[in-house]
Every structure is written in C-alpha cells, then in structure tokens.
Design a protein that fits this description.
Blueprint lengths: L1 E4 L20 H6 L10 H9 L3 E5 L6 H9 L7 E3 L1 H8 L19 E4 L2 H10 L3 E3 L7 H13 L8
The structure holds magnesium ion.
The site of magnesium ion (MG) has 7 residues, from loops.
Length: 161
C-alpha cells in the first residue's frame, strides 16, 4: 500500500499552535533544510513503513525531492519518492492545455493521500483518489491517519467513494 503525505500545513506546520518533533542531531541539521517536522509524525510514519506501507511525499511546493528525503531521514523516516510541483507538471501537465487537479495521487499509484486541504479531498472525489484530511491544530491527526490506513488495508472503503 502506497501512502503519500503533503508537506505544508501537514508535515511542516509553522503555526505557533502546532508542536514539532525534537530537532535532529547537528550533523543532520548541517545537511538538511532544517525545517521543523510536526510533532507525532515520525513514529507513525515508521510504523506504517514497518507494516509494509510505501511512504511518499506529494507537495505542490518546489522543494527538491532529494532534500525532502534527506530531511525526513534525519527524523528516521524513509520515503520512497517525492512528487513536487515540478514532477507533477512533468507527468500530468505535458502541454499548456492540460489542466490536471492540483494533485493526482492516483496517477502515481498512491492509495491514500494525507493533506490539510479540503480542496484536495474534493478533487479526490472528482478524480477518484482517496484523501484523509488532517488540520494543523488536530492533535489526534496521526491516529486519524493510522485509522484511515487500516480502513484502506482492510478494504472497507472503495476508492473514490
Ligand atoms: Mg498543505
């Protein structure tokens, strides 16, 4: 099962109301962007991976994929692939007449996408991909994600339903 995470306001929350994971060791900070990872993100992501999930990042930002991978490695999280805006455009916006949704996880074989945006969830309804929406001030967000993955794994939901 392939699960993707949005970055801004999902894994990276700069708002004062969202606590962050402890900062990684100095040698990691020296080679990564040093952005804060949302509190409670690292352990569930590692759990998902241990359960056989493939973790991806899907962001509309232009952060370089390698730097995002390295940044998460600093927190002990391994992601398989990062889809940023450039990758998205390369795959889904081949001509200027193409108007794909802002994200299309299904086009990348992603089974479940985690995002703060209700707009992305609505795009999912339209284009047939599954989104679990978590807000930056939701302290129980990680449990919500794990529950959604459980649902997906047990086949209790139908894609796009
Ligand atoms: Mg976002």
């Amino acid at each position: 099962m392939r699960v993707s995470f949005d970055l801004d306001d999902t894994l990276i929350c700069y708002g004062p109301g969202t606590p962050c994971e402890p900062r990684p060791a100095w040698y990691w900070r020296a080679v990564t962007s040093g952005e804060p990872l949302r509190h409670g993100a690292a352990a569930p992501m590692r759990t998902l991976r241990a359960r056989g999930c493939e973790l991806w990042v899907y962001t509309t930002s232009h952060r370089p994929p390698l730097s995002v991978k390295l940044w998460l490695r600093a927190y002990g999280v391994r992601v398989r692939r990062v889809v940023n805006q450039d990758v998205h455009d390369r795959y889904l916006r081949r001509t200027t007449r193409d108007y794909p949704p802002s994200k299309n996880p299904r086009a990348f074989g992603i089974d479940l996408h985690v995002d703060d945006s209700d707009g992305v969830r609505m795009e999912g309804e339209e284009h047939g991909f599954r989104v679990v929406v978590v807000s930056p001030d939701d302290e129980g967000w990680a449990a919500k994600v794990l529950a959604a993955v459980e649902d997906a794994m047990s086949g209790r939901f139908r894609r796009g339903a």
